[in-house]
């Protein structure tokens, strides 16, 4: 569950010359370069999403053909914990570029204390964690303390610059990361970058892949591996994923639902199942 902090963190030196991941996107022999959904299939998706109620935004991107289905892609939401995934990619990219040491340890102190999701909040003050462990906890357990500790070492403005290099049009919407705003279009930019990173960076990409395939609160479902990050807070119930199917694709569903009812979780299962079926990979 994301937090909505407006308190500025204590900043250290911000790396500003990090390069974005390569634009090369790996494909497989099974990828079709002419795949698309018909107008009737797109309308089926529109009706499904209309019936979910509230404010909903969605995208489906076939990574081989580039075909994109979108539903209210510019609606703006509180990002909750979604931003933790691209932020951790940023730090892992710094490490790959030799600009940080993942074994460096940070100390849990009272000023990092935070409620919501995570396990570090229950540890004793003075406990030390490596940057790599903090990244793992930020992704796997959506740990709010972990992301605050990382932010003290890798300030938000450095990540904002990195996000701009990826193509995020309004990086200031990231704020202090824990109070970020996001659209489905933004989420698609981040997930494309994560897809490139996990397939081209042998060390950081492998770590991010491991962490993002072992997260809690399963919302999207597939018979294929899901590289994903969820977000859940007030007026925010989201999931974004790369589905590692024979023809891989990106799936994004953002909503202002917040109660986590059976119906709320069902909309993610229904949407992901429908896309898997329409893509011919169910």
Describe the structure in your own words:
The chain is an alpha+beta fold and 282 residues long. The chain has helices at residues 39-50, 84-96, 131-140, 144-153, 156-166, 184-200, 204-212, 262-278; strands at residues 56-62, 68-71, 77-78, 105-107, 128-130, 181-182, 226-233, 236-243, 249-255. A 5-stranded antiparallel sheet has the order 2-1-9-8-7, sandwiched between helices. A two-stranded antiparallel sheet has the order 3-6. Mean pLDDT is 90; it is low at 1-30.
Question: Topology of this structure?
Answer:
Elements: H1 39-50, E1 56-62, E2 68-71, E3 77-78, H2 84-96, E4 105-107, E5 128-130, H3 131-140, H4 144-153, H5 156-166, E6 181-182, H6 184-200, H7 204-212, E7 226-233, E8 236-243, E9 249-255, H8 262-278
Antiparallel strand pairs: 1-2, 1-9, 3-6, 4-5, 7-8, 8-9
Structure keywords:
single chain, 282 residues, alpha+beta, five-stranded antiparallel sheet, two-stranded antiparallel ribbon, 9 strands, globular, disordered N terminus
Q: Tell me, briefly, the overall form.
A: globular
Mean pLDDT: 90
Q: Largest sheet at a glance? A: 5 strands, antiparallel
Strand content: 15-25%
Which structural class fits the helix and strand makeup?
alpha+beta
Element string (H = helix, E = strand)? HEEEHEEHHHEHHEEEH
Runs with pLDDT <50, length 5+?
A: 1-30
């Amino acid at each position: 569950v994301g937090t909505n902090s407006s308190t500025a963190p204590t900043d250290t030196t911000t790396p500003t010359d990090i390069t974005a991941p390569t634009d090369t996107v790996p494909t497989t022999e099974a990828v079709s370069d002419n795949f698309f959904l018909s107008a009737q299939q797109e309308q089926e998706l529109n009706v499904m999403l209309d019936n979910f109620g509230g404010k909903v935004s969605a995208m489906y991107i076939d990574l081989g053909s580039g075909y994109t289905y979108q539903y209210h892609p510019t609606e703006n939401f509180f990002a909750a914990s979604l931003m933790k995934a691209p932020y951790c990619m940023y730090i892992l990219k710094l490490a790959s570029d030799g600009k940080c040491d993942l074994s460096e340890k940070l100390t849990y102190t009272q000023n990092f204390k935070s409620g919501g999701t995570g396990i570090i909040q229950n540890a004793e003050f003075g406990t030390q964690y490596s940057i790599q462990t903090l990244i793992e906890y930020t992704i796997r357990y959506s740990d709010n303390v972990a992301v605050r500790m990382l932010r003290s070492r890798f300030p938000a403005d450095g990540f904002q610059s990195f996000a701009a290099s990826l193509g995020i049009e309004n990086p200031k919407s990231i704020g202090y990361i824990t109070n970020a705003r996001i659209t489905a279009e933004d989420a698609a930019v981040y997930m494309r970058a994560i897809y490139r990173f996990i397939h081209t960076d042998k060390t950081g990409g492998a770590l991010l892949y491991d962490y993002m395939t072992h997260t809690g609160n399963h919302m999207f479902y597939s018979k294929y591996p899901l590289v994903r990050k969820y977000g859940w807070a007030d007026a925010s119930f989201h999931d974004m994923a790369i589905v590692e199917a024979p023809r891989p694709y990106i799936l994004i569903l953002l909503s202002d639902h917040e109660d986590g009812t059976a119906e709320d979780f069902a909309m993610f299962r229904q949407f992901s199942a429908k896309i898997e079926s329409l893509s011919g990979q169910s």
